[in-house]
């Protein structure tokens, strides 16, 4: 018992010492106080920039003193000085992981599961609970007591299941119309206050809900990890008879932006993030990422910042469009559909693919898929491709897909600059 109190006393001492010595950002108050975030969303541009400027100076000071990577950072007086700092890419993180970690802040590792060049970062332990997301949730005007999550199995398990007030539906199980109808019936029976889902699987469900006349009772829907385009949003709202909110966040960064009840541009969680737009690419500075400072971090998303203000009256800056994420489906030989994340997620964490900057999938015919692999550089040593093909067949049957691999110099992009995940003329909504 004595050792327990000694340990707690020591932890309290170190916490006080850190605050006195200004080792930690004094503005962490805005993360732990939801009342502050309810007020700050109505701040003026000047008030928000002043808040960001304070956090930026603290972050730069901390990064310069406590990381090897940032020890030679230039002095930053305002947002206008940020361009003195070079971009931080996922390749930079991979090659300088230990040098980016702060020596005096405990954290936990987070691995992204996105479709484009995975990265592992370290998050401050104090950021496990995100009050920015809680603020967004309060915009829904829904009790949110029963939540249905339509995510990948890496998060919620490989089988549909209900645990108390949560219904978990893995997207890997959503392959065809029969699966969609099964999921819709589960949702209808559950009657969720909130559905949190990837946009593409959600649209897949909406299509069959309208086609089969299944009308689940849902309070509100939040899409994540990809944007629900206007036509898909209209179809989804019609199918589920509720409001749909676009949400933008990531594992390594947290909740970054969301639309409000006006359903226009996305409000940026500006108390924590400074977002820049450079040639349609988005750069993120996380003002509270002290365990591993992410300054001008390029996560390979493509977007457009807005110059206007939302009619809702909130002072938070807005993101006009986000066009850099997509999860799509592949058509198999037997006319079923496989979500491409079935093939992507396991590969993100395998050493055999550490040389790969990006994955893309080209559907050249029914059941015929070519995996386009873009290496980090021309000097990368590329392993035997036949061996890599066998890794894909650990996730999908040869009866479903014929898979080949091709090395490419650069990823295929759309006219808007978006990196396309699946290059195909097939669509599950055309059959």
Produce the secondary structure layout.
Elements: H1 2-20, H2 29-32, H3 34-40, H4 45-66, H5 90-95, H6 97-100, E1 107-111, E2 120-124, H7 131-138, E3 147-150, H8 153-156, E4 161-163, E5 166-168, H9 177-190, E6 194-198, H10 199-212, E7 220-224, H11 230-240, E8 243-250, E9 254-258, E10 266-268, E11 273-278, E12 281-286, E13 297-305, E14 318-322, E15 329-331, E16 337-339, H12 341-348, E17 356-365, E18 368-375, H13 385-392, E19 402-407, E20 422-423
Parallel strand pairs: 3-5, 3-6, 6-7, 7-8, 17-20, 18-19
Antiparallel strand pairs: 1-2, 4-5, 8-9, 9-10, 10-14, 11-12, 12-13, 13-14, 15-16, 17-18
Helix pairs in contact: 9-10, 10-11
Can you describe this structure in just a few lines?
The chain has 431 residues and is α/β, with parallel strands linked by helices.
Q: How large a portion of the residues is in β-strands, by DSSP E?
A: 15-25%
Assign an overall shape. globular
Q: Strand order of the main beta sheet, please?
A: 4-5-3-6-7-8-9-10-14-13-12-11
How many helix segments? 13
Note the main sheet.
12 strands, mixed
User: What is the arithmetic mean of pLDDT?
Assistant: 83
Q: What is the domain total for the residues?
A: 2
Could you name the CATH homologous superfamily of the largest domain?
Answer: ANL, N-terminal domain
Number of β-strand runs? 20
Named CATH architecture of the largest domain: 3-Layer(aba) Sandwich
What top-tier CATH class of the largest domain fits best?
A: Alpha Beta
How many angstroms separate the termini? Answer: 67 Å
Which structural category do the helix and sheet elements fall into? Answer: alpha/beta
* Helix percentage range: 25-40%
């Amino acid at each position: 018992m004595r050792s327990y109190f000694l340990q707690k006393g020591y932890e309290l001492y170190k916490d006080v010492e850190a605050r006195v010595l200004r080792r930690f950002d004094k503005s962490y108050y805005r993360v732990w106080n939801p009342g502050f975030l309810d007020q700050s969303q109505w701040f003026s541009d000047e008030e928000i920039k002043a808040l960001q400027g304070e956090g930026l100076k603290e972050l730069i000071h901390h990064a310069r003193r406590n990381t090897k990577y940032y020890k030679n950072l230039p002095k930053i007086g305002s947002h206008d000085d940020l361009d003195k700092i070079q971009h931080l890419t996922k390749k930079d993180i991979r090659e300088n992981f230990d040098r980016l970690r702060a020596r005096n802040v405990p954290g936990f590792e987070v691995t992204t599961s996105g479709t484009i060049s995975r990265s592992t970062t370290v998050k401050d332990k104090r950021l496990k609970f995100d009050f920015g997301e809680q603020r967004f949730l309060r915009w829904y005007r829904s009790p949110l007591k029963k939540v249905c999550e339509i995510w990948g199995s890496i998060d919620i398990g490989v089988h549909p299941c209900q645990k108390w007030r949560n219904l978990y539906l893995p997207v890997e199980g959503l392959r065809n119309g029969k699966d969609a109808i099964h999921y819709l019936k589960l949702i209808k029976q559950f009657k969720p206050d909130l559905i949190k889902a990837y946009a593409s699987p959600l649209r897949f469900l909406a299509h069959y809900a309208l086609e089969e006349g299944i009308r689940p009772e849902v309070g509100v829907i939040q899409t994540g990890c990809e944007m629900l385009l206007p036509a898909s949003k209209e179809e989804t709202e019609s199918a589920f008879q509720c409001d749909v909110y676009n949400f933008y966040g990531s594992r390594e960064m947290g909740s970054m932006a969301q639309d409000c009840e006006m359903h226009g541009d996305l409000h940026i969680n500006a108390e924590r993030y400074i977002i820049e737009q450079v040639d349609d690419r988005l750069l993120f500075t996380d003002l509270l990422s002290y365990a591993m400072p992410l300054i001008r971090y390029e996560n390979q998303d493509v977007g457009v910042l807005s110059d206007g203000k939302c009619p809702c009256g909130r002072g938070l800056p807005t993101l006009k469009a986000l066009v850099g994420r997509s999860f799509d489906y592949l058509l198999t030989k037997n006319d079923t559909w496989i979500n491409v994340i079935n093939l992507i997620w396991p590969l993100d964490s395998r050493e055999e693919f550490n040389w790969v900057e990006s994955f893309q999938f080209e559907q050249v015919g029914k059941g015929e898929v070519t995996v386009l692999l873009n290496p980090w550089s021309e000097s990368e040593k590329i392993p035997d491709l036949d061996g890599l093909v066998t890794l894909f067949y650990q996730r999908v049957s040869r009866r479903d897909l014929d898979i080949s691999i091709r090395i490419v110099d650069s990823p295929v992009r759309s006219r808007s600059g978006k990196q396309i995940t699946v290059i195909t003329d097939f669509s599950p909504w055309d059959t």
